């Protein structure tokens, strides 16, 4: 599992995908989210503005990312 440090406390899902290097642009992040390719804490998440907090686990392309 990859651990990603987020200093802001709260980050939106689409911004997290860019921050973690999963998506290079916002449009790419939106594409992944809308195509139901991203899971948040084990559940498919389709809201790109979903607020994430420390301890959340994001899954994409058989990789897991934990916000620390």
Automatic annotation (TrEMBL):
What InterPro entries does the record tag this protein with?
S4_RNA-bd_sf
- Which superkingdom is the protein from? Bacteria
Q: Which UniProt keywords apply?
A: RNA-binding
Q: Name one Pfam family in it.
A: S4_2
- Please report the name of this protein according to its UniProt entry: RNA-binding S4 domain-containing protein
Q: Which organism is it from?
A: Clostridium frigoriphilum
Q: What is the lineage of its organism?
A: Bacteria, Bacillati, Bacillota, Clostridia, Eubacteriales
